Amino acid sequence: MGGRCALALAVVSALLCQVWSSGVFELKLQEFVNKKGLLGNRNCCRGGAGAPPCACRTFFRVCLKHYQASVSPEPPCTYGSAVTPVLGVDSFSLPDGAGADPAFSNPIRFPFGFTWPGTFSLIIEALHTDSPDDLATENPERLISRLATQRHLTVGEEWSQDLHSSGRTDLKYSYRFVCDEHYYGEGCSVFCRPRDDAFGHFTCGERGEKVCNPGWKGLYCTEPICLPGCDEQHGFCDRPGDCKCRVGWQGRYCDECIRYPGCLHGTCQQPWQCNCQEGWGGLFCNQDLNYCTHHKPCKNGATCTNTGQGSYTCSCRPGYTGATCELGIDECDPSPCKNGGSCTDLENSYSCTCPPGFYGKICELSAMTCADGPCFNGGRCSDSPDGGYSCRCPVGYSGFNCEKKIDYCSSSPCSNGARCVDVGDAYLCRCQVGFSGRHCDDNVDDCASSPCANGGTCRDGVNDFSCTCPPGYTGRNCSAPVSRCEHAPCHNGATCHERGHRYVCECAQGYGGPNCQFLLPELPPGPAVVDLTEKLEGQGGPFPWVAVCAGVILVLMLLLGCAAVVVCIRLSLQKRRPPAEPCRGETETMNNLANCQREKDISVSVIGATQIKNTNKKADLHGDHGTDKNGFKARYPAVDYNLVQDLKGDEATIRDVHSKRDTKCQPQGSSGEEKGTPTTLRGGEASERKRPDSACSTSKDTKYQSVYVISEEKDECVIATEV
C-alpha cells in the first residue's frame, strides 16, 4: 500500500510540472456481448423478480490512469474514473449520445488540465447488480469481465477502434483524445484564442500559431502595417494604412525634412536646417547674392551691379534717374521754349514747336512785328528792341498772343457744394443753404437768433441747430414744460395730479408728506391731498401735534428707564459693601490709619539725629498699641517705640475715655491682651512675637499708606500719611 501511494504522488508531481493545457479523453462503449449471462466466477447472474434466469444487469466501471507496463486495476485512477448506470442485460449495443438514462452520455469524457502525455492505461469492468440503485463496485462477486490495457494515443479527431474478448464476453469500444477550444498541439499545450483588440489582432492556425489579421504584424499582431512607402524611421502609424510623421518630418511618406522656420531659399537634409541655394545667403537664405541676375531691377537699359548681401546699384543712361533708373528726366521742366513755344521731351533732349512768327531752337527769334497784328482779343502789341513783339492781354485772357480765355472756375474755388459762376474777369460762388462767404466756407450760425427758450443751450449745425434743455423743459426749442408727474414723485402708491406748473400727490390711507413718503398715525377715512407747490411757497398747514407728542413721550420713557437702571445699580453696589466696623469712625483721621493690621502697610523707618516732633497725637492715643508697636519692635528691636515724653502723663487719662474703643481694636492672638492687661512698649519679649490679625482691619486695597519716622535720641515717632 505504501508503494502504491508513493507511485501516485510521483505521478501527480510529474503532472503538475507539465505545462498547463486543456483537452479531453473520450471513451465510446459500442457493444457488449454476454451470451450465457454468467459472472466472472462462472456463476449465473441472479435476475430480479420476473426476469429470466442468468440475466445479468450490466453496468461498467471505467478507470483511466497513467501508463503502466503491468496494469493494475486497483485505484488510484490518476486520470479519472466513471461508473455508468445499468446499460443493458447480457448482450446489448450502445448508441452515441444520451441513452435512456439521462445520467449517462456516450462517449464518456475525461477532461485534462495538463499536457496529454501520449500514453495511458485503461481498465473497463463489466459488473452485475440486482438493483439499478445499487452500483457498488467493491464486491468482486459482481464482476462479469475486466479489460486492462495500455496504449499510445496521439491527439486527433479520429477514433481508435478496439475489441476485447475474454472467452465468455466481448466488448467493442473506441477512444480518442481531442483538444478543448483554443488549445492546439500534440499535447494540447498551445493556447491560442483569436482576438481583435488592443492586445492583438489575429486568428489561430491548425497548430495554434497566431495568424495576424490583414494590416497587422508582430509577435502578438499588435503592430500596424503602415502605408506602403512610409519611411520606417521618420514615420509611424496607429492603424493599418496610415503614415504619421515624427517631429521634424513631413510629406505623404514622411520623407521630407522640415526646414528652419523662416528659411526662404534653402533646403535641408535633417530637420531644422537651412542650407542656402546658389546665389543666396544669410541665416534664412533671404539675402540675394546675385540680385541683378535674379531680379533685373534696373530699368530703361541701366547697368546693374551686385554689391553683396542682397544689394545692388543701377548706372542710369542719360535722361533717366532714380534708384532703378525708372524716372526719365524731363528736359522741358525748365520751360526752355520761349515766346509761347511748345516743348516736347525727348530722350536726353527736347524740341520746341514755335508759334507763328517765331523760329529758332527755343523759338527765340521772331519773324513778326506789331505791324502784322499778332495780338488777339484786344491785346495791345509792343515791339521789342531785340526783335519780336509782346502782347499785353486784357482781363480774362492769356497766352503769348492773348489767344486763351481765362476760366476762373477751373480751379474749383467754391467750397461746400457751392456753384461757381464765371463773370468774365472774375467768378462768383452761389452757396448752399447754411453757408456764406466769398468761397462759401463759412457756416451760418443758426444759433445767432437764440432759438432755445427757457435757458436752453443752443448747438449750431449745418443749416440747423439743436437745443439742450434745462430740467423741466423739453421740445425742439425747450418751450414745452416737462410734466411734473413724469418721474413719479409720489411714493407708497400715491396718485400724482398735475395742476398748472405744480403737481399734487393724492396719498393712500396711512401716508403723508409732500410726496407721501411718511407713515402717519391713523387718520379719519378719506384721501389726503398734499400740494407740494404750496409747501414750497411757505403756505402754512396744520401743525403735526400727534407726531410731536409721540416723540416727547418716547424721550420721557427713555429717560425714566435710564434712571431706573441707575438706581438698581446703586442699590446692588450698596448691598455688596461690608458692614461698618467698630473702629470706622476713628480710622478716618488725618493719617488714615485704617488698619489695625499693619502687615501690608508700607513702613519706612528713618533713624536720624535731628529732633522729630509727633504731629499726630490722636494716632498715638487711639492707635493699636499692642499691634503697631510690637510690629515696629519686631522690625527694629534696637529702637525704643515710645512717643514724646510730655504725652505720657496724659496717656492714663485719655485711656479711660477710649478704653472701650481701644479694647475693640486690640489683637485677638496674644494671651496678655485677651485679659485686658496693658502692653509695655519697651518689652523685648513682646517685640519678638508675630503680630496677630486685627478683627477690625479695613480693606487692603486702601489708597493711603502710613509712613513712620522714628528718632533714636528722643524716642519720638512721626506718623504721616502717604497718598
Automatic annotation (TrEMBL):
Pfam families in UniProt: DSL, EGF, EGF_DL_JAG, MNNL
InterPro entries assigned to the protein according to its UniProt record, in alphabetical order: DSL, EGF, EGF-like_Ca-bd_dom, EGF-type_Asp/Asn_hydroxyl_site, EGF_Ca-bd_CS, Growth_fac_rcpt_cys_sf, Notch_Cell-Fate_Det, Notch_ligand_N
Transmembrane domains' residue ranges: 545-569
Highest classification ranks of the organism: Eukaryota, Metazoa, Chordata, Craniata, Vertebrata
Mode of membrane association: Single-pass type I membrane protein
Disulfide bonds: 179-188, 192-204, 212-221, 316-325, 354-363, 393-402, 431-440, 469-478, 507-516
Keyword Repeat: yes
All copies of domain DSL, residue ranges: 177-221
Full protein name: Delta-like protein
GO cellular component: apical plasma membrane
Region: Disordered, residue numbers: 655-703
Primary location recorded for the protein, binned into one broad class: membrane
Any one GO BP annotation for this protein: cell differentiation
Gene Ontology molecular function: any one: receptor ligand activity
Positions with biased composition (Basic and acidic residues): 655-664
Function of the protein: Putative Notch ligand involved in the mediation of Notch signaling.
Signal sequence, renumbered to the chain: 1-21
Primary gene name: DLL1
Subcellular location as annotated: Apical cell membrane; Membrane
Top-level taxon of origin: Eukaryota
Keywords: Developmental protein, Differentiation, Disulfide bond, EGF-like domain, Glycoprotein, Membrane, Notch signaling pathway, Repeat, Signal, Transmembrane, Transmembrane helix, Ubl conjugation
Domain EGF-like: 288-326, 328-364, 366-403, 405-441, 443-479, 481-517
Species per Swiss-Prot/TrEMBL record: Callithrix jacchus (White-tufted-ear marmoset)
